[in-house]
Amino acid sequence: MKKSLLVLLVILFAINLSSKAEDFSAVYNGDTIYYNITSSVYPYTASVTFRGSTDYSYTNEYSGSLSIPDSVLYNGNCYLVSNIGNNAFAYCQELITVEIPNSVTSIDDNAFYNCRSLNSIIIPNSVTSIGNHAFESCIELTSIIIPNSVITIGARVFYDCLGLTSVQIPSSVTSIGMACFYYTPWYNAFPDGEIYINNFLYEYKTSCTVDLDINVREGTVSVSEYAFYWANHLLKITFPNSLVSIGDNAFENCAYLTSITCNSTTPPSLGTDVFKYVNKSIPIYVPEASLALYQAAEGWRDFYNIQALELDDIINNNNIDIVIYPNPAQDKAKIRIDNLYSKADIIVLDIMGKEVKRDVIAKGIKELELNVSDLPKGIYNILILNETISQTKKLIITK
Fold first, then answer.
1. What SUPFAM superfamilies does the database record attribute to this sequence (predicted)?
2. Which of 4, 61, 140, 326 is the most exposed place for a label (fewest CB within 10 A)?
């Protein structure tokens, strides 16, 4: 009996060793590409995968240039290549360029992880999601264009891409995961403070070492996951009426928050553990007409000191008159603000929404001269922001 059991275990072990991750393979332009069938009924679909039983079975399987077909024939069926699967090309350190077909709708976790020679990849306008770590440690990548079909970008997708200096992110992107661009020159070029990408607040860059009172700029629709994670010096935060959602763990461990003001009439939806370890007795100021909504809303109702904003406290731009001249400008532009009753931040944003310059105009000062000689020609937005106003003006810089 023991002998029979031993033989059976040996057979099962051998079968496991010889099992493969792929369902089939096919040659395209001289390269053997491996696939998993994701739909065995019409319309047939397949996902690109790695060779062997584990993702480390055959590292450096590919080198040079690789082209992936949009369809592949197997057993008389034509399979649409709809996905680049988990770990499909991980550790192919001699892979230089990849052509992805327009049939692909998703690039999964670790798809090109540690492809250290990869210097060119075009993401087609069919991809809607890019998984965690998809291009992590692709140190030769210098630029990436995210097509306007993409909606979500996972965590650490371009982490440790040491050569990445240019990134284009379309307005279609509504979610970017934690540490997505850490250790890239593109990320490092952002000044310390809030990083806005399109219409969402991505994160507060660098650790909070001084007390912070942050006014999220008007037009922001979401706050990304982990945006202020463990920001111990964050004391107050004010959300605009444009805010729609706040991502997972965005303010976890912000233990010294003393108040939150939210001007949105509809309570923004909250992800998981957004305010974990935040004192639930701090005042939450919301529009008076929405008080009952916040008191009943998931996540917000955990706070038991939700108060109505007085009408005068709600952001109102009607009495603020702002003029920028000369416009277009070359080296200097002047910003005149009438009816300014408290200091305001003057934030210069490029066409992609990236902050490129910041100044402060003091209470009672009607005019500020802004040096723009170091900025390239183009169209910029000037954001004037404090606890009661949020206005944007356009500035054209010519050289």
1. L domain-like
2. 4
